[in-house]
Amino acid sequence: MTTDHNSFQAAILQGIPATLPPKHQFPARVNRAPKRKDILSQEEKHLAIRNALRYFPKKWHAELAREFAEELQDYGRIYMYRFKPNYKLYARPLSDYPAQSQQAAALMLMIQNNLDPAVAQHPEELITYGGNGAVFQNWAQYTLCMHYLAQMTDEQSLHLYSGHPMGLFPSSKNAPRVVVTNGMMIPNYSKPDDWEKFNALGVTQYGQMTAGSFMYIGPQGIVHGTTITLLNASRKILKSDENCRGKIFLTAGLGGMSGAQPKAGNICGCITICAEVNPKAALKRHQQGWVDLLIDKLDDLVARVRTAKKNEEVVSMAYIGNVVDVWERFDQEDIQIHLGSDQTSLHIPWTGGYYPVSLSYEEANSMLQENPAAFKKEVQQSLRRHAAIIQKHTDKGTYFFDYGNAFLLEASRAGADIMAENKIDFKYPSYVQDILGPLCFDYGFGPFRWVCASGKEEDLDRTDAIALAVLEEINTTAPPQIQMQLQDNIQEK
Ligand SMILES: NC(=O)c1ccc[n+]([C@@H]2O[C@H](COP(=O)([O-])OP(=O)(O)OC[C@H]3O[C@@H](n4cnc5c(N)ncnc54)[C@H](O)[C@@H]3O)[C@@H](O)[C@H]2O)c1
């Protein structure tokens, strides 16, 4: 065993360190979370600090109280950066974790994967994806949770309340090892500002679907679902003898989930254009191989798309800029978009989930901090413009669908012309209701994932081979209406 390995195990077993660690140094070029809204009154700020101090011995309180007050001031949250561990955060092979229970070790693996800088959107702030999808609220919760998991037996369960560990409880071998709740809010007090306030107080967090439950496995976890969505969306517009070759898919977002779109486009065999305003996010996905090309000028994009179309290439392009600009330019250039969607984070439209087309990325970030009310107006205006240009394309035959990111909802709230004639439905379909639901879920198909906990390539290949053999066998006797879905899964490699 190496010293690194020993000190990693020792740090996990220790939990909150015995001596106060030095102040945190932020790594260079890390993608930091935007400053959150300054939403607490003076009295509530004191409460937030008292809540934070409960994890630490009294003798540190004076020093930490000052530091946490500064974090609240500078970032709108108390992340307890000083307690971020020194060891590297990544999914180690299961055998590297100090543990009494293999299930607990597997959870430690998943937690560290969620916080790996190569995986997480804002690793310093424990945000995995979706702008606010948190694994824990702060580094003390992380440290304590790992410490509990290392001690846990197969007859105990750890209970977590929005990242806060409530402790180990006796349970049976068949019970879950960890029970998690996230984002618990009383419905009448769950407007965005209520949520911001309780998160700033340190009493609730938004775990998204897979960050706060430690299941996130990067765009890898969503690439299967995105591929089957695209394949089935294309079935809505293609003739039975056509495939995706030479067809154009335009969308936005190269973040946590959205980053899977270009790879899914490649698997389907089309030309994918994915706009991303944050150059760091685009670069990361390009370096990781999730998208083939990075393009930062609209003229270059248009030229490259024309070539790809002429040669019927299978290629994916990240355009570094605003997606509305691409929709508008393609309209002027008469480039036909076959499939259109959007995965900007419109579930959090006012806090940086959606960047308005009227501002540069830097201008938008400044306005977001200095004048949130003006920022909201820009977002609403941009959404109206966004919906209007989509309409121009759908009039020319584009199949546009909502990707569960609340695009249709927020565009309608912004006053965009997006409602159907009955004023109840939207003009455009949505991916679960109209695509995955009737074509996949209704037949028992859906996106799913597995994790190779040994960390060995050969084990992963074995599980792939087993899955392939099972699918091929089922396909020999499957009724015709599901054969197409089985075939899609067999083809995905
Ligand atoms: N993929 C799925 O299966 C799925 C399912 C349900 C919901 N969603 C929703 O999709 C959204 C995206 O999820 P994510 O995890 O990728 O979020 P994310 O915040 O990690 O990524 C969104 C990206 O969009 C970029 N962006 C914002 N406005 C833009 C604009 N106008 N033009 C170009 N780029 C812009 C942001 O810079 C960010 O990188 C969320 O609302 C999520 O809830 C996705």
Q: What brief labels describe this structure?
A:
493 residues, alpha/beta, 6-stranded parallel beta sheet, 3-stranded mixed beta sheet, 11 strands, 44% helix, 9% strand, globular, binds nicotinamide-adenine-dinucleotide
Helix-strand layout with pairing:
Blueprint: H1 3-14, H2 42-53, H3 61-75, H4 102-115, E1 127-129, E2 133-134, H5 139-151, E3 156-161, E4 164-170, E5 178-181, H6 192-200, H7 220-235, E6 248-252, H8 261-268, E7 271-276, H9 279-287, E8 293-295, H10 298-310, E9 315-320, H11 323-332, E10 339-340, H12 349-353, H13 361-370, H14 372-395, E11 399-400, H15 407-413, H16 431-439, H17 457-477, H18 480-491
Parallel strand pairs: 3-5, 6-7, 6-10, 7-9, 8-9, 10-11
Antiparallel strand pairs: 1-2, 3-4
Helix pairs in contact: 2-3, 7-8, 7-16, 11-14, 13-14, 14-15, 17-18
Bound molecules: nicotinamide-adenine-dinucleotide.
Shape: globular
Q: Radius of gyration in whole Å, from Cα?
A: 24 Å
Sheet with the most strands: spatial strand order = 8-9-7-6-10-11
What is the makeup of the main sheet? 6 strands, parallel
Helix content: 40-55%
Which compounds are bound in this model? Answer: nicotinamide-adenine-dinucleotide
| Series of secondary-structure elements, N-terminal to C-terminal | HHHHEEHEEEHHEHEHEHEHEHHHEHHHH
Number of strands: 11
- The termini sit apart by 36 Å
Mean pLDDT: 94
Output the number of helix runs: 18
- Hey, roughly how much beta strand do the residues contain? 5-15%
The structural class is alpha/beta
- Contiguous low-pLDDT stretches (5 residues minimum) are none
